[in-house]
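Section 3.1: Structural characterization of target chains.
Under the original work plan, the team committed to producing a structural model for every single-chain target entering the pipeline before any wet-lab resources were allocated. The record below documents one such target. The sequence was received from the expression subgroup and is listed exactly as submitted; it comprises 255 residues.
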Amino acid sequence: MTETAPVLEILYQDDVLVAVNKPAGMLVHRSWLDRHETRFVMQTLRDQLGGQHVFPLHRLDRPTSGVLLFALSSEMAAEMMPKFAGREVKKTYHAVVRGWVKEAAVLDYPLKEELDKLDDKRTDQDKAPQEAVTAYWPLATVETQIPVGRYATSRYSLVEMKPETGRKHQLRRHMHHLSHHIIGDVNHGDGRHNRMFREHYDCHRLMLHASALEFIHPVSGQPLRIRADVDDSWLRVMDAFDWPLSLLTQAPEEN
């Protein structure tokens, strides 16, 4: 039986750029680490656009969903990539994390580069930790009557995050450093809470979503903000915790 090809939600498209809402669990492109995977955002998008080549301008980890931006030519990619490196593109993420995040803050905590055994085998193994900065805000909290571990109840927060740098797994590792592990993170999270979300909320994904990208359009010179809505897993959790969806679209100071 042939597997039906997924259809990507196109969030924005013009003559030079296209953005999609990447589903959680889908690779951006082929990787030696997932040699048996057959579905990739790049190939799927190219097919949807009638064979148009696309050039990814940044990356989202496989388990992360949300806004993913592509250039439609190598020339536009070459123009846009420095804007990401130069922090001219503002990224907004939302996450559900363990515990109550009580106040907004900026975490400046350098991260040692995480290396993949195959993809990064030629990379310097002794590189010094790199600058990593994340601003974050608590948007909502909840306390459930479901015991996890030795506690009779369990507490969670909805947070908004704006990374000022783009280190590998930065948001997951920064939340781990704060002991506010992102739900569904199998590498840096807490397996007991991940299991509870699977069993009680049918949530089998990393609860990290790239909600928006903001930048100056390279051709028009006008500000552009591209948003991506959350998926069904997010909707179930938001509903179970009685968190309004408007929390995902308002600026933190408006909440």
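The chain has one domain: 9-254.
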